[in-house]
Protein 1
Amino acid sequence: MRQKLAWLALAAIVLAALPLPLSEPHTVELATVGAYFIAILGVDLLGRHAGEVSLGHGGFMAVGAYTTATLTADHGVRDLWTIPAAAAVAGGVGLLAGLPGLRVSGLSFALASFGIAVAAPTTLRRFDHLTGGSRGIALFGKSTQTGHGLGVLGLTNGQWLYALTWTVGVACFLVLWAILASSFGRSLHAVRDSELAAAAAGVNRPAVKLAAFGISAALAGIAGSLLAIDVAYVSPHTFPIQLSLYLLVGSVAGLYGSIWGAVLGALLVQYLSRLVGLVPHVDTSRAGPTTFFFGATLVALMLALPLVLRSADAIARRGHARPH
Amino acid sequence: MTGFLEHLVSGLASGGIYGLLALAIVLVRRTTGVINFAQGEMATLAAFGCWTLVDHGWAFWPAFGATIALSFAGGAALQVVVLRPVERGPLAGILVLTVGLMLSLNGLMAWIWGGAPKRFDGPFSASLVTVGGAAFSKRDIGVVVASLAVAALVGLLLTRTKLGLGLRAASASPAEARLAGVRVGAMRAAGWGLAAALGAVAGVLAAPSLGLEPNMLQTALLYALAAAVLGGLDSPAGALVGGLLLGVLLDLVGSYVHWVGGELRPATALAVLLAVLLVRPAGPLGVRRA
């Protein structure tokens, strides 16, 4: 426990000191990594703790981002206060998408969430009086922007965005951790491992599942809201179908180790295209190679996973068999 | 009235394509128990293959035949090489794997052919024929007839041939089928192969009107999933009828309900999908299995 705390303290120091030597654009990039981290926490909550696949967290992010964008740009609400609103709206949409999951589990949430990812960009274009259509909404320099793009509290704008995003990110992680450690977390795991046994033990399966869908989508909403604040601009192109699938890749990359995995996944979502650009003869100005490597990573991880789990299982069993 | 008939035919043409793709999804679901999210990209890849052959001077029909044969082999190989190692694992993992395939194929296509839509004329001319004052595109009529014919062939294959019997036996009760001498593993591969071949037909039929590019069938995949769900996810006939119904519904609603227009079509399909899953998960067109 003490060792774990020491690691977390070290991580906090690194996290706080990281932007100091970096240029302004790089700092903003690391802030958006924080937004992806929060979204991946949401995908993870479903995948690892509720046994459901979401193919639509990019869509829920879009809901959160546009909540923030319309409130700050058109309704004069200070950007910080729109974050909880984004969580509430995206959470509500998540509950709606989760409703069919109460009757049929396994496939239905994957189908419904994929539908949200596909429908989000064109739906955003349709309601252009609210969303600005394909032009999107710019937030930079608006009077509701905290620091007006010039930074606050002696921080540059990038440092402020980085601090804001990662503070919210760490808070989301702690809240999620507390939720999972509570009796709700145990109910969720019980439903995932055996719906029948959980029902027999008196777990209210529909309520538990629905709550998980809602919390997960709300996390994506917060992520979208922070992404909008960090980039100070949203448009339908910010949230293509691919984004939802990249977040899923990020979450699966995180299967190997809790919170570090989610950080790794978020870094992957932001930086994989540049990593791919290091491969000789690969032109990453086109979308193809990056998407291909995201997919190949996912396939490789899924094929390797059973082997990893099996060997981990064997090691654990050997440990138990050892005489005391 | 003539306008209504015109929309009916163009809706049936899109619906035929959704129906074929839905049929492929249902075949995979029946034979291996999963939804293949890569089905749309596999179909697009087949269309690119056919386009490339035609571009190299092949006549359309031989190129189409070669595309279907290659797609069958590719689909079966994918099942054996990629899906078989994980098929005993949790459903969520297999779903995620098919999403990985979807991304890889999508990226590969953009890498090789670029993102700009390619012109692909296909087998039917785009000219109009006028019947009783209503103008129909020959291409739409051709697509409707072709998709119905292909679906009928698949129906005959499933119900009247030894291969079809084996496919149905292997999906209904694998253990008993194995005892009766059915090679269940081979049937699963054949199910994926058949689905890939069906997808190839859908992709080639769709390419002339949609414009051939890597994301061509991503929205159509949503429509096909909604169509399959309308049919209860397990019924080949239900999937085809679901596809045709959805095609007509989206065309009529998109054209006559001004508020919906073209841009809310995906959202309309999503609403249909959610409503069916909520109210009658077995599918309004599906048969409840005993």
Protein 2
Amino acid sequence: MLAGGLAAAFALSSVLIVWADAGVWEAYGLIFKGALASRFGITETLARSTPLIMTGLAAAIAFRAKLWNIGGEGQFYMGTLMATWLGTGFLTLPSYLLVPTLILAGALAGGLALLLPTLLKARYKVDEVVTTLLLNFVIILFVSFLLEGPLKDPVSLGWPQASPIVDNGVLPLLIAKTRLHSGFVVALCLAVGLWVLVSRTKLGYEIRAVGHSPQAAGFAGINTRATLIKTALLSGGVAGIAGVCEVTGLKGYLTLDISPGFGYTGIAVAMLGLLHPLGVVVSAIFISTIFVGTDSMSRTLNIPTYLADVIVALAILFVLVSVLLTRYRIVTR
Amino acid sequence: MRSNKDRPQGGAVPIALKMTGITKRFGALVASDQVSLELGEGEILSLFGENGAGKTTLMNILFGHYTADAGNIEVFSKPLVGGNTKAALDAGIGMVHQHFALGENLTVLENICLGNEPLWSLRFGGVRLADKARQIAQRCGFEVDLDRPVHTLSIGEKQRVEIVKALYRDAKILVLDEPTAVLTPQEAEGLFEVLRHLSTEGLAVIFISHKLKEIMAVSDRICVLRHGRVVLEVTRAEADPDEIAKAMVGQELKPAVRTRLEPGSTLLSLEAVAKKVDQGALGLQEASFTLREREILGITGVSGNGQQELGDILNGITKPDSGHIDWSALNTAGGDGDQLRRDGVARIPADRHAEGVISGMTVWENVISHSLGKFSKNGLLSFDSAQEHSQQLCTSYDVRYDSLHAEVQQLSGGNIQKLILARELSDQPRVIIAVQPTRGLDVGAVDAVHRRLLEMREKGAGVLLITEDLDELFALSDQIAVIYKGKLSPFYSAERLTLKNIGRMMSGFEIATPA
């Protein structure tokens, strides 16, 4: 079913490739060759999947509790802010202390960014879709203000960017001379951890119960408000860690364009991964394969890179529909 | 009233409806197996059977909601196209569903005309339409101001509007799906009068019920369905209630026996517990009573008179606005579900799908949903012991499932209810709050629930039973009170009350204290 959904997505996307006057097989061949057939391609794909895995996990865990966290982008930036504030000289610690400190601080900042909308939802039934979405803009403008002012690197020649992370705060590379850093390992650990949490722990049970039926969960004695708040801290925290890893592992310093919408793409990753933590890893790598591969393919065939967005969007639609079809049957009458 | 009307089969009376060899399969399940029945003009035919016996399937086929796999339907000797609701309506088949399909904010007249007349005619054809509607309402013995909004009507009146609406459409065959479920005994008797009267005018009626008394009171002929087959068809004069019940269940059912027990010490007492009126709900006026060991207190009332609020308060779903619930005998302060349960309170909620189980989670997860603490260590759930526990409980409470890992909503209503009982009653509770514990269950499952509750009573538990099923009320309760518009009557000994007393109290009359 899943394979069928993906096949259908590729089939429909090929209409656009034909329209752009290119060969379908050639284009798809180049996408996968570009993303997976070389050392550079593979490491680049995994590096780009790293923030997506984490923002995907953030969305997945929240959606499990039917907490519609659209604020992954803002929580991501809260993480980058924390890493920048503490990691550019504020703290002088050895590497084995500073890196965990930055990650925990980023998680805390991300979690707090989701806490406020969640409290409003739990207490006053304020729609969290609206509040988390709008909070993204607030946070991004706040980051923009800081980068133009207090956090601006004095030697940046006028560019709105922060000072670089100190050496002890930088996440080590996994493979030298590539962009693949140990944030990828952090992401995998988080995925496994959340998988265990969701499926094997009392908290995971409570999160799923609240998501399926708050009324019945409350009747069973589960404190739905407390569960939502814990979920918010987890979800926002994971998104915050994504931000920390992107600054300390990949970029080295904070700029306003550090995220090309990782928080939003995370929602797509979570949906395509069917909200399963390990599914999220697979779907994040799939999506970054498409992005990396399409970049290299478009250079050769002159097809706009927007094709990647189209393929990803269609894949999500088809996979969700195919999951739906495994539960229902189409009847003609 | 034509009480002794025994029609010879296929005699002089014209046949209104003839269904032959109707078969419908859903996968491996044969919901309707070669069912044939005939209905004469002016005849009242009862379809009797457990849930899942195929009554509703058969009527859905008649009404065109489903297409039969095999079989023919003839209405007034003309074949009826299957699977077409409009064709069924045009052929003169009218249906009154258990849950009414009325626009609450529209007037009686607007509701009657809705779907029957072009929209513009409501404005321009007012007098003609109103005359026709009034005439039909009079035939039904239904005196109502046609301009009253429907939400101001009682349940019984709303049902009458549904009947008038069907007749307005020139229905010659009227199907009523469990019409008495929402009525007081008096209202039900009123409905039977109307049906008898309409049948003398030639209307053919199919009456669906799983209450034996009612079908004995109203039918000319009784048709018992079991597992999609007609297992018994008798005229009312020949009908033997025991034989009918046996045919429906497939075996002899001995009713659960309530032994006489002396109540023990107080378990729970309410002092002036009240809940304010909120958004159309009647709220609860100051209710006070005590529940003791080894007794079942029954509370009844027409749906929506405050019993839901009382049940929610006791179940810890809502908090009362004033008053005090004394749980001190249990050494608990009340509070949330987890706490109540640990302190010996078992709760059977009214809405088993929305509150009783967590739809989307598995069977075993639902068995342990109220005792997560017991099956987790350092925050980790111990799957093995939880699943073993669930399997044992399901076996001893006869919960039938395909797999422990199936989602719980795949179970039938009866099995879901048994699962809830298994979960709630397994820890030797001292207080049981049971709200509508058998609503919508078939006879076999009802019997299982009743036996469990009586068993718990014998073991010393106190049971508060809130129910709208009067047979259940009398079968289980030691003491009975009626709730009307949020006001709870005093409790009377069940032996001293009659169905008639209860019916009057349900309609708001005070009764003289029974001697």
